[in-house]
Specification:
Chain A: This is Aspartyl/glutamyl-tRNA(Asn/Gln) amidotransferase subunit B. The complex is a heterodimer. By secondary structure, chain A is an alpha+beta fold. Chain A has 3 domains: 304 residues, no CATH class; 113 residues, no CATH class; 58 residues, Arc Repressor Mutant, subunit A, CATH 1.10.10.410. In chain A, the strands form 3 sheets. A 9-stranded mixed beta sheet of chain A has the order 2-5-6-9-1-10-11-12-13. In chain A, α11 crosses α12. Chain B has one domain: Amidase signature (AS) enzymes (Alpha-Beta Complex). In chain B, β7, α9 and β8 form a beta-alpha-beta unit. In chain B, α10 packs across α12 and α10 packs across α13. The two termini of chain B are 17 Å apart. Classes of the chains: A alpha+beta, B alpha/beta. Chains A and B meet through loops of A and α10 and α11 of B.
């Protein structure tokens, strides 16, 4: 393999067409593990959620978690899949220290769900991603490699293993190859994973936290010269652990492969690792000496044969799916496609919906989340959902503005206070003294002072140049440190000067 | 008569009636073990105090008025492939030497719940792979009938312990004949229940789709009592059958075959069978006819392919089941000197910890499951398995049970087949089809072969969940033959 220089993205896309494929692993949020009764709580002390079965002690046997099977079928249904009437688990055999049995109970040629699709929206266009299969398996333990430069097993001094994660139910969702995304390949990959994440959330089957590894993505990319019908050799970039990384990994892999192909090199079919810091991938294990997993039907478990009537019930009971919900909310809120897309991209829809549910008008809710709060999130490098403020608090702020207790400027200060941990909006108003000046006497005194200090402007207004009142209102706002109600101040100024609009 | 010569049913009744304590019964057997173990070597682990503690606890439960089963206080020898909280468990392998399980197998737990007293853990072929117990990493067990011969296998420690009056009962596991063949060559009763009828939870797996826990005893009724004590649905084993345990004890008490239809498997006789075995077998068939059974010959041609199919399926499953023995979490660890990788330590440990027969089967199974070979080997063997099941089903439309010799020969000399795996594998020729089909099958003594005066077993096979038929026919044969012999066959065994 030539080291290859990266080819700039636009040039790469002028010469090549990408074909994508995505394998996504979702850890189900069941209370117990896939094949034993151990808890699945994230972050428990190492090796405290283990038993003979998930440690693979001699003699221990698996028993399939019925809730996990149900969740997988619901995922399959939400992805428009057919559900197998009869299927089996299979053993995938390979040795690795974090896999206690040295085989993974998975599914092979008989997945629980197959042949589905999911539609994603990119710049107003609908792209249909076909789903090859959805199957159920168990997670491995978690290895930590200590010493060495890379944190990988190669070069490490020693490794430690936490088996708490071993046996957590894992759903693998595999797309069919996705051709025809052209320049949008990175965005399509990201939109697909985003959509999956929302579907999982709406089904309530997983907390889908990419940073905690409960949603993990492997990205397959290949390139073919423009005009060619024959797909190129693909690489598989493993464990891409944020939405942004999905997009970057596709882009980087396109640039890398294009560079190699342009120099007459050939792509090696291999696993690659994505590096968050550089946004590039490096070579992992070559798949050309492919592992032989020696799959065979798991003899410790009985086949799964979901009753079609039960599957029909599950289908009927599916919640409103995210794409449908977005269309409904867009109509209810009266937003353009572009505005809705912007909210979707910013992960703001749920927050806005919750804010509306807490009593705020949709326009106000959207204005705060997509404006001030989006800016704050961007500045601090966090997501909207992770800002230390709740939809109910935003709703309260909009209520205070609507009732005239706050103006927008004061409202922003209230948000400052809430984000700084000073308490609820009402507590911040109280502590910072941010109430609008409603006392007519106090306001009147401020106005008198401002009129006295700005006699020229006052004369202009008297003379009928009402536009000059703006400067006087500005003066009142300055003198009141922003707490005056600007509209009322204007009204009083005009009254005092004996003019009307 | 001394306590060790009594049947389990008798001992249970005596203990329940307060005639003798569980401690006294345990002591009698522990004393017998101390006397004959140097010759027989049936046990891998014996701990007098642990055993007596169990017996004391049972006596206390009985004194407190607790209602226990008919075997409360009766000792049992436990195959060292069932995990036990209070005793080491090795599966006959160096790779598990010294391992103390943190949990009890379901069979172990049910023995305890029924008040049985575990005398110790019995020897076996490593991971139950073998037909002579010579594949144990801890040395061979000797047949009480002739100490130079094997006690069968893989459950040879369990068969020898019962035949040597060290225990009235023992547990075994039967994957291809590992209960029936040792029972046959030691002159006792051994039963392979319907697959799924007894739990595999805590039974160290050899071949998951075949492994079946079952009982050994010196008579049919005792075997039924033990099977009843540890059988039945277990939610911890997905392949366990959620059905009532067949009425095996009732059947064992009802030795009546009048009007029953008995099929003689045509393929299991002739060349390769010891003449003395065939002579006793043919007499047993005539006996059944004389007791009023209708005997017909049944041809099951696919049974001839059972052995090769078994030696693809069982090794395939074992190659995967034994992957967990990797030095990471328990058992032997070799080469962990700080310079070697985990992969190297795994490889060194497995090379040092597994014996030659285990390695042979792991290699065989790994090959049979490999990409490009799967269809020709594992896949084809599964098809054969289906055909065998269908032949059984077809046969059971015509007859209630099938019979055959349990094993083609009597006990062979220690060392004779140790270097000839094919000869060893042939010992399970007649027993394997029932494992592949998941059927019930029992071996009961039917006499001594003329040429060597060693025990011969009659195998009685019955449909899935018709275990009771095995016991009913077995009890009828036992009653008639003991009438002729004037007592159990085992009474003819030489004194140790």
């Amino acid at each position: 393999m030539t080291a290859g220089t990266l080819m700039p993205y636009d040039e790469a896309l002028d010469r090549f067409e990408p074909v994508l494929g995505l394998e996504t692993h979702v850890e189900l949020g069941t209370r117990s593990k896939m094949f034993c009764g151990c808890k699945t709580t994230f972050g428990a002390p190492p090796n405290t959620q283990v038993c003979p079965t998930c440690l693979a002690l001699p003699g221990a046997l698996p028993v399939a978690n019925a809730a996990a099977i149900e969740s997988t079928i619901r995922i399959g249904l939400a992805l428009n899949c057919s559900i197998a009437e009869w299927c089996r688990f299979a053993r995938k055999n390979y040795f690795y220290p974090d896999m206690p049995k040295n085989y993974q109970i998975s599914q092979y040629d008989e997945p629980l769900c197959f042949d589905g699709y999911v539609d994603v929206e990119i710049e107003g266009q609908t792209v249909r991603i076909e789903i090859e299969r959805v199957h159920l398996e168990e997670d491995t333990g978690k290895s930590t490699h200590v010493g060495g430069a890379t944190g990988r097993i190669h070069g490490a001094d020693y490794s430690i293993v936490d088996y708490n994660r071993a046996g957590i139910p894992l759903v693998e969702i595999v797309t069919k190859p996705i051709p025809g995304t052209d320049r949008m390949a990175p965005e399509v990959a990201r939109a697909y994973v985003t959509e999956l994440r929302e579907i999982m959330r709406s089904l309530g089957v997983s907390d889908v936290r990419m940073e905690e590894g409960s949603l993990r993505c492997d990205v397959n990319v290949s390139l073919m010269p423009r005009g060619s019908a024959e797909w190129g050799t693909r690489t598989e970039t493993k464990n891409v652990n944020s939405l942004r990384s999905v997009e970057r990994a596709v882009r980087s892999e396109i640039e890398r492969q294009a560079g190699i192909l342009a120099e007459g090199g050939r792509i090696v079919q291999e696993t690659r690792h994505f590096h968050e810091d550089t946004g590039t991938t490096t070579s992992g294990r070559s798949k050309e000496e492919a592992q032989d997993y020696r799959y065979f039907p798991e003899p410790d478990l009985v086949p799964i044969a979901p009753d079609p009537a039960w599957v029909a019930e599950l289908k009927a009971a599916l919640p409103e799916l995210p794409s449908v919900r977005r269309k409904r909310l867009q109509a209810e809120w009266g937003l353009s496609d572009l505005d809705m897309q912007a909210m979707h991209n910013a992960d703001a829809i749920e927050l806005v919906e919750a804010t509306v549910a807490a009593g705020a008008p949709a326009a106000d809710a959207r204005k705060w989340w997509m404006g001030e709060l989006a800016r704050r999130a961007n500045e601090t490098g966090t997501t909207l959902a992770d800002l230390p403020i709740t939809p109910a608090q935003i709703a309260r702020v909009t209520e205070l503005v609507a009732s005239g207790s706050l103006n927008d400027k004061l409202a922003r200060e209230v948000l400052d206070g809430v984000l700084a941990g000073e308490g609820t909006p009402d507590e911040v108003v109280e502590r910072r003294g941010l109430q609008i000046v409603n006392d007519e006497g106090e306001l009147s005194a401020i106005i008198d002072q401002v009129l006295a200090d700005n006699a020229d402007a006052a004369e202009k207004v008297k003379a009928g140049k009402i536009a000059a009142a703006g400067a006087l209102v500005g003066g009142v706002m300055r003198a009141s440190k922003g707490k005056a109600d600007a509209a009322r101040a204007r009204q009083l100024i005009l009254e005092k000067l004996g003019v009307s609009d | 008569m001394s306590l060790i010569r009594k049947t389990a049913a008798e001992l249970g009744a005596m203990i329940a009636g307060g005639e003798v304590s569980a401690v006294e019964v345990a002591e009698a057997h522990l004393d017998r073990m101390a006397e004959v173990e140097p010759k027989v070597q049936a046990f891998l682990h014996v701990d007098r105090e642990t055993t007596l503690d169990q017996a004391r606890a049972v006596d206390a439960r009985l004194r407190a008025g607790e209602k226990l089963g008919p075997l409360a206080g009766v000792p049992v020898a436990h195959k060292d492939i069932f995990v036990t909280r209070d005793m080491p468990t090795t599966a006959g392998s160096k790779i598990l030497e010294g391992w103390r399980p943190p949990y009890d197998a379901t069979v172990t737990a049910r023995l305890r719940a029924a008040g049985l007293v575990i005398l110790g853990k019995t020897n076996l072929d490593e991971f139950a792979m073998g037909s002579s117990t010579e594949n144990s990493a801890f040395g061979a067990t000797h047949n009480p009938w002739d100490l130079t011969r094997v006690p069968g296998g893989s459950s040879g420690g369990s068969s020898a312990a019962v035949a040597a009056y060290e225990a009235p009962l023992s547990t075994g596991t039967d994957t291809g004949g590992s209960i029936r063949q040792p029972a046959s060559v030691t002159g006792i009763v051994g039963m392979k229940p319907t697959y799924g009828g007894s739990s595999r939870y805590g039974l160290i797996a050899f071949a998951s789709s075949l492994d079946t826990p079952g009982p050994f005893a010196r008579n049919v009724l005792d075997a039924a009592l033990l099977q009843e004590a540890f059988s039945g649905y277990d939610p911890m084993d997905s392949t366990s059958v959620d059905q009532p345990v067949p009425a095996v004890v009732e059947a064992a008490r009802n030795p009546d075959v009048a009007g029953m239809r008995i099929g003689v498997v045509k393929e299991f006789a002739g060349e390769g069978y010891q003449p003395g075995v065939l002579a006793r077998y043919n007499e047993a068939i005539q006996l059944l006819e004389s007791l009023g059974a209708k005997v017909v010959e049944i041809s099951c041609p696919a049974f001839r392919t059972a052995l090769p199919a078994y030696y693809l399926i069982a090794p395939s499953e074992c190659s995967s089941n034994l992957a967990r023995f990797d030095a990471m979490r328990y058992g032997l660890r070799v080469g962990d000197d700080g310079t070697r990788s985990a992969e190297e330590v795994m490889a060194l440990t497995r090379a040092a910890g597994f014996g030659p027969e285990v390695k042979r089967r792991v290699m065989l199974g790994t090959y049979a499951l490999s990409s490009g070979y799967y269809d020709a080997y594992y896949g084809q063997a599964q098809k054969v398995r289906t055909v065998i099941s269908r032949e059984f089903e077809a046969a059971y439309e015509q007859v209630d049970v099938l019979v055959s010799p349990t094993t083609p020969t009597t006990a062979f000399p220690i060392g004779e087949r140790a270097d000839d795996p094919m000869a060893m594998y042939l010992a399970d020729l007649c027993t394997i089809p029932s494992n592949l089909a998941g059927n019930a099958a029992i071996s009961v003594p039917c006499g001594l072969a003329d040429e060597d005066n060693l025990p011969v077993g009659l195998q009685i096979m019955a449909p899935v969940l018709a275990d009771d038929r095995c016991y009913r026919v077995g009890a009828a044969v036992e009653k008639a033959l003991e009438g002729r012999w004037g007592g159990p066959l085992l009474a003819k065994a030489p004194e140790l």
